[in-house]
Design brief:
Strand content of chain B: 5-15%
CATH topology of chain B: 434 Repressor (Amino-terminal Domain)
Shape of chain A: globular
CATH architecture of chain B: Orthogonal Bundle
Oligomer: heterodimer
Largest interface: A-B, 16 and 15 residues
Number of strands of chain A: 0
Strand content of chain A: under 5%
Radius of gyration of chain B: 11 Å
Strand order of the largest sheet of chain B: 1-2
Structural class of chain A: mainly alpha
Order of helices and strands of chain A: HHHHHHH
Chain lengths: 200, 65
């Protein structure tokens, strides 16, 4: 099986990620106001569709990777699984003892937490362990800092529109602001690093 | 394991990206093999040897640490 390049993977998943974001902000909140269980359930599950597609693409990417890439993916996923399992064990024990109040919707954060830990683990393995670089693979002509700035811009636009329409709740607001607080410093850091290394 | 991949690649004036494309692996895999951070699997080692037209033992040398 031929390798799936980073560019191909990003092309397939970026639209799914955007669809998920829009569904979470514009469709999912409608579920709360529904009285019929069927419609409530269907609306609540709309964001899951692009995420399931993204998971399938991740599996396809890992399957189509070369041997070292597969090793890195598996090691990073193992690290992420370990971190999330430890966190859920600790949180579960505290919640069961009544020392921590946890609501059921915390489960929605399991996937983002796994993906964040996987991303960090993969970065560490590629840059520190195998001596590589996570920047511009396969001749991408769209630098990472530009992609991060575009994403931050989209999030800012969605945030502004939702706030103007009075449709933004505390969960969505926290999620979007949190993403901006992560994306913007990383984008600026990557831009400064490129300038220091003399790349245009 | 030591290897002569960088030298052989240089003789043909191939970049790491060129070699990666010929072997259908990522450029990072080529870099990791050349810097000794990763030892290729047997199928990949044979593929490399076939590409350079050399015996596998002349490209990869096992070193006892």
């Amino acid at each position: 099986m031929s390798r799936m390049t980073e560019r191909q993977y990003r092309r397939r998943t970026s639209l799914a990620a955007l669809a998920y974001l829009l569904a979470m902000l514009l469709v999912w909140p409608l579920a709360r106001g529904q009285h019929g269980m069927l419609l409530k359930g269907l609306l609540a599950l709309v964001p899951a569709v692009p995420m399931l597609y993204l998971m399938v693409q991740m599996a396809a990417r890992i399957r189509a990777s070369d041997e070292l890439e597969q090793r890195v993916h598996m090691q990073a996923l193992g690290m992420a699984c370990g971190v999330v399992c430890a966190a859920s064990l600790i949180g579960g024990l505290l919640a069961a003892a009544g020392a921590l109040r946890v609501q059921g919707d915390i489960l929605v954060w399991v996937f983002p937490l796994i993906m964040s830990c996987y991303g960090l683990g993969r970065w560490w393995l590629v840059t520190r362990h195998y001596g590589g670089s996570t920047g511009c693979e396969d001749g991408s002509d769209f630098p990472l800092y530009q992609r991060l700035l575009v994403l931050a811009g989209l999030i800012a636009i969605i945030l502004a529109v939702c706030w103007w329409r009075g449709q933004i709740g505390p969960l969505a607001l926290g999620m979007l602001v949190g993403m901006l607080l992560v994306l913007l410093p990383v984008a600026v850091y990557r831009l400064l690093r490129r300038r220091r290394s003399g790349v245009a | 394991m030591n290897n002569r991949m960088r030298d052989l690649r240089g003789e043909r004036q191939w970049s790491q990206a060129d070699l990666a494309e010929r072997l259908d692996v990522s450029r990072q895999t080529i870099n990791a093999i050349e810097t000794g951070k990763y030892d290729p699997s047997l199928p990949l080692a044979f593929k490399i040897a076939r590409l350079f037209g050399r015996p596998i033992e002349s490209i990869f040398q096992y070193s006892q640490e």
